[in-house]
Amino acid sequence: MIVLYFSVSVHPNKADPSYQVTLVNSTLWQNYGTPNMAGQLSMTWNSSLVESENVNVELWGYREVNRNTARSSPLQAEIRYLYSLGRNIPNTGDFSFIPEPREEFSVWELGNIRITASSKSEGERYVQALWSEGHVLAWHLEPSFREDSSGWAEKKCRQWDDLEKKLPNFLDELIHCPCTLAQARADTGRFHTDYTCNIETGSMCTNHPGSVHCVRAIQASSSHGSGQQCCYDHTGALVLTGDSVGGSTPDRAHNWGSSPYREPPRVPGYSHWLYDVISFCYCCLWSDLCHIYLNHRPSSGCRRYQPPRAGVVFGDLHFITFDGLSYTFSGRGEYYLVFSADRELRVQARTEQLKLKN
Which end of the chain is more exposed for a tag (fewer CB within 10 A), N or C? Predict the structure, then answer.
């Protein structure tokens, strides 16, 4: 998902929360309509960021549809205004409502809340606005979901299972996880903190019970644009789905997307939610078919993980290479310290005799 504010595009995980619409009690939003999940939904925002006494509260949906075109990807991303939750309401910085099923919009299972000045038309694009993060639209699904959420979710989970069996295998091209939490936090060149399970901020790790910290691979896989996730327990050990439902789960679509970004399943945020998060809701949160989800998202483990090594130059031109070779070289001139043609990486160095005034 991309959050738009004053023509600035930024992934929601990196956006300042003060510039977003906050969904109060996100667990209720995500599971609305399942047992014991009902009542009012509430949101808050910084009212000073919308220069208007009154505002509109809108729901926008996202989906990826098959357009049968000659594009490199048969799927096309679509984000669209669906309907308004409130029009011309006072800009007090908070709004609550009791959602009703909207069967005509049930095909839209992922979306965002958008707040604009009341002077703007419904669904008008390219205007000053505040957006919420993307979330599962459980709260507006058809009446059959509220009547039997478990049965509805089981059907969806099995449909997803059939779809996954037809899609290409992406697991073999993923980077393996670091074996320990210390390695994961030190390997900043290849892994970054998963903000939904962060030991530094005390986030709850809701989707990975038993874990205290997760990281995600920075780089998407080359062929399929997939992502790796690695989770660790309080002892620093890697948690595997073979041992716990809270274990590390890879992603068919990298959360940060991958080039060319506009084409599914490489759209930042959104594609990940459609391929990896909504399916988790179907199988693990709303029904008892989590084994189906974990069968398609097994932990990769750390058998082939290789910690990064340092190359060092120090003193009177003493060198230690990445593979541990040590030698001394006192030649003067310009040299390549690192050269990788396939990565288009060149690190040059100039050596010359030291000149001291004394």
Answer: C
Single-letter residue type at 80: R
Q: Strand order in 94-97's β-sheet?
A: 22-24, 41-44, 94-97
CA-nearest of 11, 108, 107, 3 to 49 is: 3
- Edge-to-edge strands of the sheet including 229-232? 191-193, 213-217, 229-232
Residue recorded with tokens 């990896």: 276
Helix residue ranges per DSSP H, 167-314: 181-186, 270-272, 278-280, 290-296
pLDDT at 287 over 60: yes
Beta 333-340 vs 41-44: how paired, if at all? unpaired
Closest CA to 30 of 193, 202, 149, 163: 149
Ranges assigned E (strand) in the chain: 3-5, 8-10, 22-24, 41-44, 54-66, 75-90, 94-97, 110-117, 130-131, 135-136, 191-193, 213-217, 229-232, 312-314, 318-320, 326-328, 333-340, 345-351
- CA neighbor of 99 nearest in space, from 156, 151, 152, 31: 31
Given a cut of 70, whether residue 11 has pLDDT beyond it is: no
Judge contact between 115 and 45, C-beta under 8 A.
yes
Which residues have C-beta within 8 Å of that of residue 84, sequence separation ≥ 6?
56, 57, 58, 59, 122
Structure tokens at 162: 């059939």
Q: Any residues with CB less than 8 A from the CB of 21 and at least 6 apart, and which?
A: 43, 44, 45, 113, 114, 115, 130, 131, 132
pLDDT at 91 over 90: yes
Amino acid at 275: Y
Cα separation of 5 and 115, whole Å? 11
Tokens linked to 234: 């309080």
What pLDDT score was predicted for residue 4?
Answer: 43
d(Cα 32, Cα 29) in Å, to the nearest integer?
A: 5
Cα-trace Rg, the chain: 24
Confidence category of residue 70, pLDDT binned at 50, 70, 90: low
Count each helix (H run) and each strand (E run) in the chain, helices first.
7, 18
- 176, 301 contact by CB (below 8 A): yes
